[in-house]
């Protein structure tokens, strides 16, 4: 059984919760109940290696497109699934003859449209032989001025084409990764001066995109990478306030540079990914 965007998915008519802003823009409201449930799920998935899920994933042919944070995730998978997963890199159709987790770099950082196009090219290169296919944007693909609605439209259009061309492939959406938000005296002074701490506004843009995935593509397979990154060890969600909204942020303990995942972060996110992929029929 596969779950994909259908060719008739409507970008315009799909439901979403938005809060209008005075400047005419819209920001998506954080759904506290849903986020609490997801946080609890990620806390549980981070507690132990999901052996049953690993064994299930090990029977699939999976294509994963990524850049740097994705490389962190692959490192986490290699450590987590050493006894179960066959991990390969590249776009050789021969890599999909037998079950394997095959990853490849897609597109260019700071050019998200290039990643969408290159993901399509990767599926073409392997002849659509994957059972499951997914790719992720990088945190650096989103700035404070990114046109999120246009990017989302580009992404959905590409997935519609892929679904039509490769109906046997299960396509899994992936939320955009987050960064640690600046804290301490400098962040405090910025707030006093009416400015946002470093990283907060960019995370708000990423959150906007992620909420579009969660709401407009509700019911489709989704790996909530952002939720995993923003979930603390106790299961609570790490957020910062920006313009009256709570915006999720990468937990500082899961990163050494505020952007990429450290050993603990890689392990937790890899477990969350295996749990999600292992739940796909």
Characterize this entry briefly.
Residues 1-47 have low confidence and may be disordered.
* Helix run count: 9
What fold name stands as the CATH topology? Rossmann fold
Instruction: Find the CATH superfamily.
Output: SGNH hydrolase
Helix content: 40-55%
Oligomeric state of shown chains: single chain
Task: Please identify the structural class as seen in this structure.
Answer: alpha/beta
Shape: globular
Low-confidence stretches: 1-47
What is the CATH-assigned architecture? 3-Layer(aba) Sandwich
N-C termini distance: 6 Å
Largest sheet: 6 strands, parallel
Count the beta strands.
10
Secondary-structure element order, N to C: EEHHEHEEHEHEHHEHEEH
Percent strand = 5-15%
What Rg, in angstroms, do the CA atoms define?
18 Å
CATH domain class: Alpha Beta
In total, the number of domains comes to 1
Order of strands across the biggest sheet?
4-5-3-6-7-8
Mean pLDDT: 85
């Amino acid at each position: 059984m596969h779950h994909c965007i259908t060719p008739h998915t409507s970008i315009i008519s799909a439901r979403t919760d938005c809060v209008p802003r005075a400047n005419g823009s819209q920001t998506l409201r954080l759904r506290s109940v849903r986020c609490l449930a997801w946080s609890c799920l990620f806390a549980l998935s981070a507690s132990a290696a999901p052996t049953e899920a690993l064994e299930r994933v090990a029977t699939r042919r999976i294509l994963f497109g990524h850049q740097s944070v994705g490389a962190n995730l692959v490192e986490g998978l290699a450590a987590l699934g050493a006894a179960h997963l066959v991990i390969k890199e590249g776009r050789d159709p021969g890599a999909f003859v037998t079950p394997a987790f095959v990853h490849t770099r897609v597109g260019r950082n700071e050019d998200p449209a290039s990643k969408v196009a290159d993901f399509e090219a990767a599926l073409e290169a392997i002849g659509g032989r994957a059972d499951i296919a997914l790719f992720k944007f990088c945190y650096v693909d989103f700035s404070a001025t990114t046109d999120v609605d246009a990017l989302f439209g580009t992404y959905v259009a590409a997935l519609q084409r892929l679904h039509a061309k490769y109906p046997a492939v299960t396509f899994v959406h992936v939320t955009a990764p987050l960064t640690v938000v600046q804290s301490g005296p400098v962040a405090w002074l910025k707030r006093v001066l009416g400015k946002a701490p470093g990283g907060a506004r960019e995370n708000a843009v990423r959150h906007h995109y992620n909420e579009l995935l969660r709401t407009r593509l509700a019911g489709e397979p989704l790996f909530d990478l952002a939720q995993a990154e923003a979930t603390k060890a106790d299961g609570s969600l790490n957020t910062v306030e920006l313009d009256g909204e709570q915006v999720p942020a990468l937990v500082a303990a899961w990163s050494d540079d505020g952007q990429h995942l450290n050993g603990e972060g890689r392990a937790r996110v890899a477990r969350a990914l295996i749990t999600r992929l292992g739940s796909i029929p």
